Amino acid sequence: MKRFFYLFFLITFFLSISNKIAANDNIAFLNLNYVFDNSGAGKKIINEIKEKRKKNNDSFKGLKKKFDQDKELLVTQKNVLSKDEYQKKFSQLENDLKRYNSEIRKKNEGLNKFQIDARKQFLITLQPILENYVKENSIDIILKNENVLIGKTNLDITNNILEIYNSKVKKISVK
Question: What is the distance, to the nearest Å, from the Cα of residue 24 to the centroid of all Cα atoms in its chain?
């Protein structure tokens, strides 16, 4: 009976200590997308991405128009050209289509790579700001707000980080 009482006392003691330790943890959460989308540097990157996408789309429209014209020309010449000449031009048209598709894919991949690199640079510039904020405010852990199901609104540090980020980072240089 003494052992049971002793064991019960120890378990109760450790549980009460662990609850006090857990209650003293300082946790916050942050919406990274909001900071990126609403920061000055993030807005510049978003505008640059929009411009590149528009430029790509204009280029794609030009390529499609040229391909459609070549296709129409070949269709109108079908009865005039010999079978071998028609086959040769048709093969050339297929090669042009493959080249156009390859060019479109390369431009899209380039844009995707730029977006990924921009996000990486954003996180790299944000990291020291978060580290400093954690030290100054005695925060133990910062969670992404996407990973938080529910929490007190006073634990959301998004606007504070946005203000600090805007004051310290004016432009993100993407390599």
Answer: 34
Q: Is residue 135 part of a domain?
A: yes
Question: What string of H, E and C letters represents the secondary structure of 140-173?
Answer: CEEEEHHHCCCCCHHHECHHHHHHHHHHHCCCCC
What's the average model confidence in pLDDT over 82-94?
86
Q: For residue 53, what are the domain limits?
A: 26-168
Mean pLDDT of the chain: 84
Helix (H, G, I), strand (E, B) or coil at 89: helix
pTM: 0.70
Count of domains observed in the chain: 1
Identify which has the larger pLDDT, 77 or 11.
77
Distance between alpha carbon 21 and the CA centroid of its chain, in Å? 36
Please give the backbone phi and psi of residue 14, each rounded to the nearest 5 degrees, phi first.
Answer: -70, -35
Residue 51 CA to residue 141 CA, distance in Å, equals: 37
- Most distant pair of Cα atoms in the chain: their distance: 108
Residue 111: inside a domain, yes or no? yes
Q: Residue 77: what pLDDT?
A: 83
Q: What is the pLDDT of residue 17?
A: 58
CATH number at residue 90: 3.30.910.20
